[in-house]
Amino acid sequence: MGLLEILGIDRSESSYLAEQTKLINWFVRFVLMRQPPGLKHSPNNSDQGDPLGASKIREALYQKVKDAVHSNDHEVIYKVTLPWSGCSDKPIYVSRRQILINRSVINLLGFYYKNTNKDKWVYKFGEDKYFLLQITNFGHRWIRRKENVAKRNIVKKMSVAMIPWEEPFPTGIPSRRIQNKIKCPNFSYELSVVSTKAKKDKVPQFQDSQVFELNQKHTQEPKLWAWIAWMKLNAKIETPREYQPTPGLQKGLSSYLKTSFDEEDQIAYFRSVINDNDKLSQKLANLFDFLWSINAQFMERLGCERTEEQFVKEQAAVQLYFGSILSQLRQRKGNLDSRAMNDAAQSLFNNPLLEKLDGLMIKGFLHSKDSKARYKLQNPERFILVKTTITTVDLIMAEIVCNILGSYYKNQNLQKWNLLFKLDQHMFDFLIRISSINSNRTMHSFYRGSLFPELKSHNLFPWKKKDEILPRSLPQKVQNRFRDYPGVSLYKLLEEVD
Q1: 152 and 297 in one domain?
Q2: Model's pTM, two decimal places?
């Protein structure tokens, strides 16, 4: 059913039942063709005229189905936590048998649709992996069906060309537009599948030796921070439940904020925020969503897709790094009250990154009640033309996240950092570029077809892993995408709010 809806067919339509019937009839024939020749209902000469390669593929596919049907392995090997609001908090446990069944079903569907009409297959999915990813992503669409009515209506219009599936395309199909869409798919789900057998990684220890500091010439411009904030607001990528802020981290944040004031009247003024656990939790969760979303898009542009296991591991490491930064901010506050500071304390006090984050955290968490709309930005690629409102708190969150990510990636692997960015400012410019790519499907298509394969080939993640075979420099076309200042041409898309 999900695949038919991806093709634009609802259950209420007559074509839905017709397509399901065709698939079932094909599956019955497929199974009977594998039965012993003397068995009743088994077709004679079932493989006659079938190329040797196709016969081997059919046999392998049949074996997958057979393994799934006869499996009695009910051992739970994965736990799935749905990361979307509106879903149950209870995780879903998946057994080895369920994995085998899912695998056989996907292979059967893929084999049927691709071999029944390869032209439509290429038109709709491009590559085999995008067939799997679109089905995986369907769960997210199902949860948010009410929000995606207009998008479904557009897909529905295209179903005229897709169904009946076995028939050739009608004339006049805009194939180029669809193919561009295939090359740059926007998948909204997060990888929230945890192996029950996997060993827990060691908690990393962070010892920063490099300081991340942005050029104030460009970063003082709020419009640029608005573009980075838009990355999160437009993508609607949420932090999975298992990676939400812990009570310990929230307690540390509360302790840090309480030490940020000397005057009793200041403490009283902000007590409504500091002592309100619900408010503080909501603000911290918002920061984590910014951190997760922007880092997700940053990693994707460097060749790490959200379907990869390393994606979640790197995200978790970044969150732990934020906890380390928060701990340093607390120590820094405590040292300011001391008459004498040792070398370590002096280093914290003189760290420009911590000084910058200290001011941003105070503004973001304590002054946010004064937040107001600053900009509106309309995405021309949206199915419904809706303007996204960007507030002063959004600008602050974007600046906090940019500094945290910059410091994390620079300190965890300076070799890779220098290969890609060389200068701290180039990392900031790259985030602006990511946002501009997201707003333009043509640019997105160019990136997926040209730059993405180049970066993916270098296997940059795990980021901390030392790599002896990294090139001394990237091709010039890639360097240009990392190190060119985006300019002010993006400003015209931002509308200031009076």
Answers
A1: no
A2: 0.74
